[in-house]
Q: What sequence folds into this?
């Protein structure tokens, strides 16, 4: 069994190397919840310092795997995975193997991008998710309010999904964008999935 330090980013998040964006986000939420301050699972096993270090590793893994270029670099340079190596394709009807492989790889990339976009649209970032991630990272609402110049009451309303306390949606989306960016999430993914009504 590998020690924690020996786990690669996929193993750390308990993911397959072909995981799509939705899988990565879901694994991230599970990992963050597992090592949060309130987690009973990690409470008796790990110290606060160990939990904080684990969250930092999870953050690095997540930010690498959700960024296409960082992920490709990580796969190629760290894990020594070559995209063409994983496609066990045989020549078909006398076609040149390399040409056939390039066509199929390009088709599968296009299909994978479409699937990732579909999954990203289905991923849900609700107020509770935002609050959990913020708390795990040890960021206070006051800190976000001070840095973004957004009232604490609005930030709390976003977390509580208390839409009556928020200004019109166009302004609330701006607040949500700033909040998400400050806690290290992709603002566009969060805005697409956050529902401004019950």
A:
């Amino acid at each position: 069994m590998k020690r924690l330090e020996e786990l690669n980013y996929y193993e750390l998040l308990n993911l397959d190397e072909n995981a799509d964006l939705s899988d990565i986000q879901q694994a991230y939420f599970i990992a963050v919840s597992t090592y949060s301050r309130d987690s009973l699972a990690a409470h008796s096993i790990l110290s606060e310092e160990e939990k904080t270090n684990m969250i930092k590793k999870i953050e690095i893994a997540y930010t690498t795997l959700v960024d296409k270029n960082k992920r490709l670099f990580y796969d190629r340079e760290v894990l020594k995975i070559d995209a063409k190596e994983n496609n066990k394709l045989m020549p078909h009807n006398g076609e040149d193997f390399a040409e056939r492989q390039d066509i199929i790889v390009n088709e599968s990339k296009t299909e994978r991008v479409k699937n990732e976009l579909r999954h990203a649209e289905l991923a849900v970032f609700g107020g509770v998710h935002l609050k959990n991630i913020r708390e795990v990272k040890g960021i206070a609402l006051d800190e976000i309010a001070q840095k973004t110049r957004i009232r604490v009451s609005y930030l709390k309303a976003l977390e509580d999904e208390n839409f009556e306390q928020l200004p019109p949606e166009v302004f609330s989306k701006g607040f949500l964008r700033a909040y998400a960016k400050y806690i290290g999430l992709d603002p566009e993914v969060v805005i697409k999935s956050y529902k401004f009504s019950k």
Summary: The chain has two domains: 4-122, 127-193. The two ends are 45 Å apart (CA to CA).
